[in-house]
Each structure stands twice: as structure tokens, then as C-alpha cells.
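To make the argument concrete, we let one protein speak, a sequence paired with a row of C-alpha cells, as a model reads it:
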Amino acid sequence: MLAESALPWIGAAGLAVGCGGAIATAFALVDDKDSTARPVSRPAPAGFHVQANRIVDPAGRTFVVKGVTSPYGTFIRGRAGRLARARRRVAGARRRRDAARTRSRRKVPTAARRSLGAASRKMTAAPGTLAAPRRELAAARRQLAVARREFSLERRAASRNLSSARRDFARLRRLGANTVRIVASPRSRRVRRLGDVIRSARRAGLVAQIAVTDATPGQATRFLRRLAHRYRRDSGVWLTPMVEPNCHPRRASSACEDWPLWWEQHRRWLRAIRSEGMTAPVVVNTPSWSSSLTGLDAYRLGDRGLVYGVHTYADDAPAFDAAARRAAEANWAGLAVGRPVIVDQVGAWNGPGRLNSGRWLTGFIRYLRHWVNRRGGAGASAYMWRWVEPNRMVGRHDTLTTWGRLFVRGYLGRVPGRRPIGS
């Protein structure tokens, strides 16, 4: 568990711009026991805030999220956990091999052992008894070698992303982005540099959305409270209490779809944020990998400053066809009534073994653009600017990948980032 004193950067870094802190109690939460009660009415803050199904900027215009996840990997542990697991597998396989070797030693009578002397120590294992443990150890060592290579690649990429953040923010601004989504874990060694990156994003004129990941509920609460305290006067710094709460790619769990648990956790996290005087919008992910908003009416969080973030990928769908559109309408697009909804994460690749269709992605970006421009969608963020997997939008020599060109030309270049209220 991370001690509170381990985050000195929050007290020393950041940019206190915006004017959202003037009304610290604008988003008072209702009593925990009433999930359907409405919050106490308060005057709207002067900075970024939520009004009905739209986000409103400090000038009073509708703000449409045109975002990109960047820098990715800098403030998360990445494959450090995988490397540690691989090391443990090798150690376990080695112990099992040694145990098998000990069990397989031939029983030599005491008198015979005396007569044989040192030669008896060479009579170690019966043929074939160590074959399986040796194969297991060899496989574990191969997995460790792969994990070491991947960890090394990620570590170099994370360092490069940190050093190029300021330049990347300037380029994203030129390409039409107005928001950067920064995924951060309080367990990352680089988290001390988070304040520097937030400052660079704000100086570039970008909203900085800090999305918390890889943390226990208690760690997340403390992390959010410190972030909220430091940036309480900057309405252009938004928080996401937890990315895809209770869902884990390597561990299937019923908690991933547990709406009551989600409600309880987010009430606690929102209380931590608002109690520090932060009035900026909070972007909330939902159960089931944040793929659906269908439980929101039954589990209301009682905070008028929320934006709901949806995550979606092609997975094994060959195209974004009529069935895919109907699913999107039922799960999230048709539910953006009275609440702002953004596509918080969409990418070109959702892991190996899936179709990850480019046709689906092209069709989805067209649908997304229409949903934002004509039907009140609050915006979208692409996943991710640069990294070591096919989701990257920038490749060698800083050239845009196919996915990067699609999002820049199909969304950033064709969606206005601000518009008058009511348009």
C-alpha cells in the first residue's frame, strides 16, 4: 500500500488556472442510503461544468471532447507485474524440479553405500523421472525471456513518452485535439512526474483527464483526494476515479458486472473528490468494461457534475453493421439523454486472437462523428497516441499510423470542439 507521503509531487506541481474553485460545494452528494435522491441545488460553477447532456466551457459554450490518450504507459506499471509473475513461475518450476530430483534418488543399502563410497553419490535419478519437471522449467524460462523483452520495450517507450509529452501535446493541439487522457496508477514509480505532465497539457491549452488505474479502492481514494486538493481551482483538470472498475484482463470476476459494488465504490470516490472543493467534471467508467450505461437509472450517483465514459472495440465483429448500431444504441448511444456521454476509449486493437477489423473501425468512426455532431454525443477520446502495440496512432519517425490517420481525419478534423449552447 502506498503511503500518503510518497506523493510529494502533488503538493509541488500543477497549474492553478480556471475558476471552478469559487464554488466549492457545487456538487454536494446526497445521503449514501438513497441512490435515487437528487443532489441539493447549487449555482453552476464558472469553469468547466455539466449542464443537462452537455459539457460547458468557462466561456459558456458547449465543449465537445476531442481527445487522445497520451502519454500512455508513463504512469502505470505495465508489464512489471507480468515480469514478476514470470520470475515466480521459474522459481516454482525450479523448486519442483529439485524436489523431483530428490524423490527420484535411488535407495542404496547402507552396506552397499559404504562399499561404493563416493560412487553412490553419482547414482542420482532413474531415467525419465525428471523429464516433466525439466520441460516445465524450460517453458517457464522461455516465458521469462519474453516477459523481460516486453518489459524492456515498455520501459523504453514509457520514458520516451514522458520526454516527448510537451512536443506531443503541441502536435495534438495542431491536429485539433482539445483533451488528453492520462492513465495513472499511484503504484507507478514515475507518478511523481505526473504534475509536470499535467502542467504541460494545460499550458498547451488541453483539458487534462487523469484516469486512475491499477489501485486498490483505498489507494484510489487517497490518490483522488490528493489530486482533487491540488487541482481544485483548475476546472480543466478532470478525474476518472477508476478505469474499467473491478475488471481485469487476466482474472474473470463477477465484480466486473456488479452495479451495487460499482455504486458503493464511486460514492466513496466522489465524496473524496468533492470534499476537497473540486467542482470540475468527473468522468465515470461503468461495469462490464465500461461498455454499457444500462444500470445508471437504477444506480444514480447523485452528482450533477458527471460525464460517463464508454469503451468500445471491434473485437470479433467484421464490420460496424446494423446489428452493431442497434447494440450501441441500446447500451449507450441512445442513453445520452439528460447526461453527457463520451466514448472514453476506442482503439484499433483489443488484444491478440481477435479479428480487430479495420472495416468495423472505419464504420464506427463514421457513426461516432454523426452521433456527436447531430445527436448530442459529448465527444470521444482515441486510444492511444504512441506505444508498443497496434493501438498506437504514431509509428516510426512520428508518422501517423492507419489508425492515427483515421481518427485525425475522420473525427478530430470533422467535429467542432466548441459550439454555442443549443446548437
